[in-house]
Amino acid sequence: MLAIRTSKMTKPIIWLFGISVAAAAFGYAFILPGLGQTAKNVDLNAYSADVERGAYVLRMGGCVVCHTDIDNGGVFLAGGAGLETPFGTFYAPNITPDTEHGIGAMSLEDFYVAMTAGVTPDGEHYFPSFPYTSYGHFKTEDIVDLKAYLDTVEPVARPSQPHELIWPFSNRQFVGVWKSLYHTPEPFVPNDAESASWNRGAYLVNGPGHCGECHTARNLIGGMSTNTLEGTGKSSFSSGAPAIAGSRSTIRDWSLNDLVFYLQLGLTPDGDVSGGKMIDVIEHGTSHLTGEDLEAIATYLKSL
Amino acid sequence: MLGRFLAAVTLGALIAVPGSHARANGDSVIEYRQHLMRAIGGHMAAVAAVVKGRLPLTEHIAEHAELIEKAAELVPAAFEEQVSDGLTDAQPEIWSKMDEFVELNAEMAQASAALANAAEEGDMRDIAMAMQSLGKSCGSCHQPFRKPKEESYKQPR
Questions:
Q1: pTM of this prediction?
Q2: What distance in Å separates the CA atoms of residue B7 and residue A296, rounded to the nearest whole number?
């Protein structure tokens, strides 16, 4: 008797379960891939590319730091060393114009969508280790110049190393959900109340320079805190980058000149040197920028 | 009279610091190491101040660089005894990889000699390059052997 009664009860439960599984499968297959796909419609042909400026944009974006295996003498832009995170190890791919292993087959449109929306030419999501959350603020002309420069780099037929991630973070489908929460690719809007230098600095810091990707704390699924640039703290879920804004800023007592000097040579005002990833960021990124741009970065950071 | 008596007592106490007390000894080792490192950092900061401020003291840069080279000679002995507990950022790896530590220190001494040379030549561009490589050599030893800032004992807990 008892057995019959339970089986009567289980039937609708099985049905309910079946329907939820089907709904989840539908969502997974058809809704998730569509999330976070939006790229702005812009006329990329409105700009004439400048290769030399593109080489400078590469330094503004700090691209070399991740896309070259610096410590092991890797070939320029042919793929980087691992970036270790709580989700596993990410390997920045080969971005030389090799058509098979690099990005030589990418059109300018593909490249623009990759940089701003974080979507591959095949319509898949890049993982947010590729900092499109910041690159989304890139000026269109800078992207055009950067692509023109990358097309002139020596192509290298070196396969990109696949990421080594733990499930469920290894699943690109879920990145769409992440993007709908944390990725808003809006072009940089200047603040007219501030100086031209401040605005240039704000653009460099929050857009190409992507400083917040390391200097802002992240939550358990890697979303950035709203305490932008206020450091990751000790206990938090990240690389341990110090605060460069807010009340705990480690650069509060630094002069503008100190900060410019630091971004050129990596020396702090108290005679110490930069540590961790910042060593590479300075050597392969900021030390290549003009004094004017470094002053702009310093002006902006000092105002936070 | 009382003053002289007190002075005698204080001096006596100083001399009678118990050498057998391991804790106090460890603290003194740490204190010395930190001041030695700060002295190097101080010279580095002084060089930076001359360059940053475009001060007419270019010839001082060579002096500071030579003093850094001198100070580097003191580093291996300062770190001979393993003291990695207490208020220090020294990583225990210093003592498990002492050869590497000593080698990196020697490279730092060479980099400061190179800075002294550049400063004597007087070309600001070369000086900046030499400072950069000296800074890098400091970092190359801090990276494996000094606790990162976020884990420093100086951080409030």
A1: 0.83
A2: 58
